[in-house]
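I have been asked to look over a protein record a colleague put together. What it holds is a sequence and that sequence's fold in C-alpha cell form. Please read both lines and tell me whether the C-alpha cells look consistent with the sequence. I do not need a full report, just your reasoning and any doubts. This is what I was given:
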Amino acid sequence: MQNIPYAVLFLHAFPLNKNMYEGQFKALKEEGIPFLAVDYPGFGNTPVFKTFKSLNQYTDYIVSKVYEAGINQVIAVGDSMGGYIMFDMFKRHREILKGLVFVSTRAEADTEEAKQGRFATIEKVKKEGKNFLIDIMLEAQTSPATKQNKEKMEKLKCLMLQATEEGIINALTAMAYREDNTGILKDINLPTIVVAGKDDEKVTPPEIVKKIADGIPNAKFYEIENSAHLPPFENPEEFNKILINFVKECI
C-alpha cells in the first residue's frame, strides 16, 4: 500500500456528490496538492447501503476510504452535511485529522421543528419521489448570482439528480438524529477555518456558521460573496484562494 503523508479530503453537501468540488480538484492538481473525494452511499457513484441510518456510519465509511488510499492524515473540507461528519471524525478519528475547513454548516443539533421537517420530507419522498426536494434545494442553496448562471444551475441539478431516493432518506434520517456539537468546539485544537456564503439566508446564514469559528480557539472565519450554501461550487475562485493558503499553512 502506498503511504501518502497527507491529502485534502472533500466531504460533499446534501443532496450532491463529490463532483460539487470539481473547481477545487483542478486547482489542487495545479498546485500538486494530493486530495481524496468520497461520495456518500446513495449519492454519486456509491451504491446505497440499506442499513445506513446514523451519521457514525457515514464517518466510518469515509475513514475506511482514507485508509484504503494509504493516506496518513487529512485536511478535511466539509460543506453542510460534510461538516457534521467532520465533527464526528474529530470525536472518534481525530488521529487522522491535520486541519479542518468547515463550510456552510452548524454545530447545533436539529431543533425538534427541524427534525420533524426532515421526517415530513422523508414521507413525501417515499410517496412522490425526489424531484420536489431537488427543486426546493436548488432554490434554497444558491445565491442570486448563481441563479443567474444557467450553466451552473443545470450542473447543480444534474449532481442532485444522481442521488438515489433511498440515499436521500438515509441521509435525512442520519442528520435528524445527529448529536449537538457545540460542547466540543472549545476542544478542537487543530488548525481550523470556517467559511460561509454571504448570501446564505435560508439554510446556514453566516451568523450561524460564524458560531463555529467563535467557539474554536484560533479559528479564522471567512464570508464569500456571490455564494449561499455552496461556496466551493458557487464561487470557486474565491474559495480556492482561501483553501490553498490554508493547506500550505497546515503542511
The longest strand covers residues 71-79. The chain has a mean pLDDT of 97. Residues 4-250 form a domain with the Rossmann fold fold (CATH 3.40.50.1820). The radius of gyration is 17 Å.
